[in-house]
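Progress narrative, work stream C.
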Amino acid sequence: MSAKILFRLAFLLFLSAVVFGFEIINFSISLKYETDQPGDCISTVTGRDLCASVAHCKILSVGCLLVSIGLLVWGAKLENRG
């Protein structure tokens, strides 16, 4: 795999991490306005568990960011070798 492709994949994964970060903010706002009590996690509008959604987005955001960094390092090693 060429370094150019790895850099493009890393960029796409970085953008995915940003989108998941935005979703964390979105679900946090929903937690504030769509629940009855401050400690509740179930939305009164959609019936969705917002705390689980925030947790999934955090995992996906950190995962995409770590894989993106790994691809950048791998691409840099390929670039320096060749």
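Work stream C, second folded protein:
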Amino acid sequence: MNKNQFEFVRHVYDHDIIEIFLRLKDKVKNSSLLVEGSNPEDLIERWELSIKDYCKNNAIDFDASLDKGTLIVPNKHGFYIIALVMKLMAIEDFKIPMVLDYQEGLASNKTEFIGIVEFNVLGSFKNNSPFKDSKDKITEIRSWITIAKSKLKSQVVIEERSFESLFRDKGFPKKLKALLESKAITESGTWVGLSKKRTEVNILIRILIQNGCLYSLPQSQIAKLFCKEFGIKLSERSMRNEPKGDGELEREYRRILNF
């Protein structure tokens, strides 16, 4: 194994295990920061042995790295989770979101990284941190997980729920828009309609659903995107309702769409 793959230009939020180790050694000197019953010497020995095992397994000179004062742990290595837990122990609690944001940015799969923090890092931190500030840091980690999930979900929703993404045939939205324009149902992309009832767009949506043109999604979600795409203003309630007694409108839309 090439030892050079473990040496990079260091960023302040990288997992420099030597810097982390030195910070932890300095932190345990202050007994007021430790949970009652914690032994500083035992902690230092445990951390040092863990790092030495990592170095030994990867043909890295621990003493040389210690003298150099830096040794970055790659995010794809199995020791990465241990290094992250130690990093979170060593830093101030207000820096936790910045560290996790930076590490998430390095991850090839953000969903997987958030899962690692939630199901591996959080529990390991809770069980192994000997410091009194653990409770505040756990709160920070949990808060970051919640926010990160929300951001990821928003990105997925935006990506998956464009107007075009509603359609099974990716070429159909363009054809539909051209057809609506040619039949004067829209003008310059803006909805005009066959009647003065704007809820008639729901008739079009229902026919498209019945004929398998749209993916199976809640009616209100589809209607919102149709309204946005064609400049229609409808209330949430109106997005779920069709104009009453307008069978002629449905027949005309079916004729236009050739359904």
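The chain has eleven helices and two strands. No further action is required on this item.
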